[in-house]
TrEMBL record:
InterPro entries: LIPOR_BchN/ChlN. One of its GO terms (molecular function) is oxidoreductase activity. This is Uncharacterized protein. GO terms for biological process: chlorophyll biosynthetic process; photosynthesis. Keywords: Chlorophyll biosynthesis, Oxidoreductase, Photosynthesis. Residues 1-10 have a biased composition (Basic and acidic residues). Residues 1-37 are annotated as: Disordered. Gene3D superfamilies: Nitrogenase molybdenum iron protein domain. Signal peptide: none annotated. It comes from Arthrobacter globiformis (strain ATCC 8010 / DSM 20124 / JCM 1332 / NBRC 12137 / NCIMB 8907 / NRRL B-2979 / 168).
Amino acid sequence: QEVTDADNKLDGALLESSRDPSEGAGSSRSDGGRLNSVEQIVQHPPLVLFGSLPSTVTNQLTMELQRQGITVSEWLPSQRYTELPALGEGVYVCGVNPFLSRTATTLLRRRRCKLIGAPFPIGPDGTRAWVEKYVLFLV
């Protein structure tokens, strides 16, 4: 029952999303736009990660991917309803939880997003494989 409710909430958010996906990657940054001198931004298609996670976890994942040169454009669900991500053709999406297959299907079929089929970031090996998959697709 809980899995279905989570999928339904994300599906509802997907259908309500109305922002223009052409804004591209890096249109909003949770870290206030600050970069360390060793970090380098690589231009790539917009990336939206989906899955309900606490804001501290989303911030940590966003910063870790930033260190790898990957900008997370948005998260779904967003922290605020008014900040729903731009979804459409040319937007890459990837789930962070293993039970979101229905949401992934909705993103592919209804929104025409491109799904990055990556292992889930569980444990050190899973996290490494997850980040490497992004690098292969986006950089």
